[in-house]
Amino acid sequence: MVIAGDSKSKSGIVKSVDREKNRALVEGLNLVTKHVKPSTQDPQAAGLVKIESPIHLSNLMLVEPATGKPTRIGRKLNEKGKLQRFSKTTQKFI
Length: 94
Hints:
mainly beta; 2 domains; three-stranded antiparallel sheet; two-stranded antiparallel ribbon; 9 strands
């Protein structure tokens, strides 16, 4: 779920994450208009095209599957002794 910007309070599926730039590409959100020239392979694809732009990770929040509401994430050891993410609102492992 997006918590800041033009796409605020909308949610979507994360397609990819760029760890170096701390940005994520969310499906169907943060659409920008791009001017595209016709190419020799596809001369009909010219004009204005809407594409998804990456969003900074600080503007995204994970939606908890059980409640459908955004939640903060923490990390703690599970019963096997391995670090695992958990929801801070329900204290359940994700």
